Amino acid sequence: MHPLRLAPRPLAAGLVALVVVISIAGGGLDASQLPDVPIPTDRDLLRDPPFDRLTLIDGTVLFVDPVSPRPLPDKEAIRAAEAKEDPPFERVGGLLVSKAPDLKRDPSENAIVIRTQDEEPKDYYVKITSIQRADYFEDILLSDALRRANSSDFDRAFELVLAVQTRDADWRGLRETADRIALLEGRDALTKGRVDEGLRLLGELYKRSPEYPGLPKLLAEGYSGRIKSAFDQGAFATGRRVLSELRSLAPESPEAAQMEQRFITRARRLAEQADDLTGPDRVERLAQALRIWSDDEEIARQYEEAFRQAPVLDVAVIDVSRRPGPFVECPADGRVIRLLYLPILADTTEAATLGDRPDQLAAELTSGDIGRRLNLRIKEGFSWNDDSRAIGAADVARALADRALPSTIGFDARWADLLSRVTILGEREVEVTLRRAPLDPAGWLLIPVGPAHAGRDGLVWTPDGPRPIGSGPFVLGPLTPRTARLDRAEVSSSGTIPIARVEERRFSPEADPVAALLRGEVSLLESVPLARLEELGRDPEIRVGRYRSPRMHWIAIDGRNAVLRNRSLRRGLSFAVDRVELLQERVLRRPLETSTVPSDGPFPVGSFADASDVAPLGHDPLLAKMLVRAAKQEMELDEIELTLAYPAIPAARAVVPGLVEAFAEAGVKVTPAERPQSDLEGELRRGGRFDLAYRAAPVDDPIRDAGPVLCPGYLAPTSSDGLGAIASPRILQLLLGLEQVQDLPTARDQVIALDREARDELPILPLWQLQEHYAWRTRLTGPAEEADALYEGIESWTIEPWFEPDER
């Protein structure tokens, strides 16, 4: 029988005390020794009670409560002292045992009390020199942490190290183990492609232990690989940032010098190419060079000089045009079309009809035959931007006739119903004959005019291929899904140098155009999310303006889907929407404002078309469920599933998840689908089918805009059945009746009736009207604090050169 089981610790002085001899290497182990510590497989090191493992000189292994002191005294020193005293111990098996009265000093000296972790724990006096090996709980934790790290289980490894730190923050080997695990985790992250995470971990280790074995080489290789990857992908700002981090960690690193030279070489090569370019092209090439390496003072000087001669304006927009030509298919087209093509009439005012507006082609508009015949006289002095010829009656006649041909891009079904014929009376005179007298003839002539010699797509064949040829102050350059370029058509003769090029950029959903404006990456922002107005207002380098007309937001409904023709369902969807909560919490993130409020119909609040007796649309989740359930019973359906298409604009992104959730609670499953705004609006206006579609637009003239607001395909060809999208026969009747009205009082009454009927018929789901804003950096001079359109007055804008420096 083992001697330990013969002699339990006495409870009174004078009884036999068992003393066990131990061999120990001192305190905690360093990281290189940790793998030699055996790890118990039957214990949870973080949940089970802590323990030490003692191996006796006869090979017996004991699991005991943590011993004290920690670590134990050096065994060699104890043996030397005992050799001098020659204590009366006798050997029993693998132990040295003596009776307490025979000891020459206190029995606790050079001995410890241990408590076994058996089913029945027992206490013993144990001579330190009678123990072959002591594995401390801290060392076992560290050893297991390192084993876990070698198996890429870094979360568990971190927990084990943290447990040691909690027990004794100064335990020998703790820091070395933590550093080793950091090295392993950093290397693992680099190997698995998580480069930024790996470099962060290795960088933190470098700050603690710059000479850690293998770290400088691994760090340099990791940073060099990250820089090279960013460089090859064109992410030069990221590459420079990583290079700066490497420089701060290892200023003399040869890898840093090599990577820096790659940036410098590429930038200077582009700067050399810029020597062969002029105007905005030279500015853009030098800007590319600075985007690669912004610290080159000579390139920066050349850039500033070139920029002052040909200023370039970078603009962050919601979306870019998809197609060149004199057509307005989407909001992006409407934003730039006046810069590219002059309209017949600039607006419907008397000054325009008399030809007093300089930004239009018409010299005069007169009418006869009780308003059924319009005579247009065209101004002299306007030519196409390719200098091919002057703009004349043939161009205007072609623009008017094409709008009545279903095969053309700019087809307008309502104009086709109205137009009888277009006659050219001379080089500068056109006669338009109509089937009936329209309410506002000038309202039909606010269209851009392209060359008569262009193709059906609006492009003119040139030696360089088909190109859009316009008459405005700018010409359209290359288009991509994310960028559009507009170049000034001719140099201004004024003393100031105007904007020579406009570069529009659509940012990806993951990017942040507001941050781009704050950084200076762009100088003009088309649309500011309302929740971030205060943020921009605090920046002294930013100015914020607002659009004069509020933007109406609503959900269009496609009545060609038989399910959506059910009025109970439309009412249920409307009652499901908490307009106030969504607007305040998700769009504004502040209380409601005077010009930003929930809407109860298709027209702006406070306009003449906003019927005063229409009650606000309510939110009643219980009633919404009841109406949806009634609709399902009426149509004998178990489930209703719809798709909600929405544009990639800030307000829609903010509220669509809430709308989907509200509809689901009412009993309708709605699947959201984000689309670029230009793609979505272009498809809707061509009469494309949908279920639900989030839309936003200003409603400047309720009489003229009522049809396109209530029916996305109102102007689409008959073959698309665009009018079939109107879910309510009553609303369709009122719209068609509005087309026949010939006096303003009756038209106003008809529009008010539309607003009143839309409250209950719900051909659309009104949401809210927003007072939207644009913003620009102060280096851009010219934008007004209030405007109808983004580029209003751009002919006189100026901008100072500037380039975004790297953060230091």
Keywords, please?
SBP_5_dom; signal; 808 residues; eight-stranded mixed β-sheet; alpha+beta; D-Maltodextrin-Binding Protein, domain 2; single chain; disordered N terminus; 24 helices; SBP_5; Bacterial extracellular solute-binding protein, family 5 Middle; 5 domains
Task: List the SSEs and their pairings.
Layout: E1 52-56, E2 61-64, H1 75-85, E3 90-92, E4 95-97, E5 111-115, E6 123-127, E7 131-135, H2 137-150, H3 154-167, H4 174-191, H5 195-208, H6 215-232, H7 236-249, H8 254-274, H9 279-292, H10 297-309, E8 312-317, H11 331-340, H12 350-353, E9 362-368, E10 373-378, H13 393-402, H14 413-418, E11 419-426, E12 429-434, E13 459-462, E14 465-468, E15 474-479, E16 483-488, E17 501-506, H15 513-519, E18 524-525, H16 533-537, E19 542-547, E20 551-557, H17 567-576, H18 579-588, E21 597-598, H19 621-635, E22 641-647, H20 650-666, E23 669-675, H21 677-685, E24 692-698, H22 702-710, H23 729-740, H24 744-761, E25 764-770, E26 773-777, E27 780-781, E28 786-787, E29 798-799
Helix pairs in contact: 2-3, 2-4, 3-4, 4-5, 5-6, 6-7, 6-8, 7-8, 8-9, 9-10, 17-19, 18-20, 23-24
Q: Can you walk through the features of this model?
A:
- The chain has 808 residues and is α+β, with helices and mostly antiparallel strands.
- The protein folds into five domains: 3-135, no CATH class; 230-310, no CATH class; 313-341 and 472-548 and 781-808, 3-Layer(aba) Sandwich (D-Maltodextrin-Binding Protein, domain 2), CATH 3.40.190; 343-449, Dipeptide-binding Protein, domain 1 (Alpha-Beta Complex), CATH 3.90.76; 551-770, Roll (Dipeptide-binding Protein, domain 3), CATH 3.10.105.
- 36% of the residues lie in helices and 18% in strands.
- The chain has 24 helices and 29 strands.
- The strands form eight sheets. The chain has an eight-stranded mixed β-sheet, sandwiched between helices. The chain has a six-stranded mixed β-sheet with strand order 21-25-20-24-22-23.
- Helix 7 (236-249) runs antiparallel to helix 8 (254-274).
- Residues 1-35 and 99-108 have low confidence and may be disordered.
- Pfam families: SBP_bac_5 (PF00496).
- It is found in: Cell envelope.
